[in-house]
Amino acid sequence: ALELIDFKNALEQFQNLVEKMIIQKMKESSGLYTKDDDEIDYDKFYTATQTLFGPAVKDQNIQAFFRKIVNNPDEKPEWLEIFGCFLGESDGTSSPSKESMVLLVSEKQQITHSVVKRKDVIKGIVKVPLLHFIVTASQRGVLTVFSKQDTAWITGCDFLPNLKYVVAVTESTIILWDYKSKENQNNGFVIKPMKNCLLCVSTVMTSDNQAKDTILMGDDKGYVYLLTMTNDDFIMKQSKAEKESQFRFMDSESFNIPKRKLHDDWVVKIKYISALKRFASCSTDSTNSFVLDDIKRLEDNLPVKEFSVPKGVNAFTYCGKAKVIVTGG
């Protein structure tokens, strides 16, 4: 009973925090907000949420929740999402109420697919902490093993034209998918771990047809990364695939990945503009909002060409015919 009371109090404080953030964001969009010591940025939001709920919340869920509020304060996320729980679309069947969903807080995962047929019932369920799985047994003799599988949000993707791979980034990994492979197993690679949360990725498109591709990436700390890969990397640096995984893993430490801090906030978008032979990156940072320069600047400390926009830049594109870059904030 005490735990329930504590949770209700924490939840009420969390909802008050969210309301303050929404009011702040709406004032910012209308130009009526002036920064002060009470401003709620991501660090304050993260600290407050961790203080209220402790280890019951994961970093990626806090980031996703904060991002949703920033991008669309008119429609605040359900509080369940801070725990990784999501209410599915109604399909005509009965769904648990918000009150009963609190029971999912400790697990942070909801199993949606059926493991037993109709007129069958699960009679036993056993958790095996040592091996990280759960075993269920049904009345009609169906045994099922649920393995622990970490899921990740895809934050960006592109195509590698020379290596013929699809590249995608998550909050902590780089995924390289061999879309040509007809095998279910071992048809891709995962480079991990990445220290910061990756938010965007873009391929450097050049005229030469060398057997390599260069990838640009941006993270939540304002860094822009440069990763060049060849076919030899897939052969020399791969390790064994984890059980039940389609991907083999490569240690990020085995790659030379130059990076440079160009912004003081999230790198929202990055793109290589072939016509200008320059890369461009934008950020919600009001001071270093947009950068346009040679990719060599990522490997040295020379000044970069940049400009500032109040409240930052969320999107940009280049028009070759008019020779202009358009930004949106």
From TrEMBL:
Protein's UniProt name: WDR64 protein
PANTHER family with a match to the protein in the record: WD REPEAT-CONTAINING PROTEIN 64, WD40 REPEAT DOMAIN 95
Record flagged with keyword Repeat: yes
Xref: SUPFAM superfamilies: WD40 repeat-like
Coiled-coil segments: none
Domain of life where this protein originates: Eukaryota
Keywords for the protein's UniProt record, in alphabetical order: Repeat
InterPro entries named among the record's database cross-references: WD-EF-hand_domain, WD40/YVTN_repeat-like_dom_sf, WD40_repeat_dom_sf
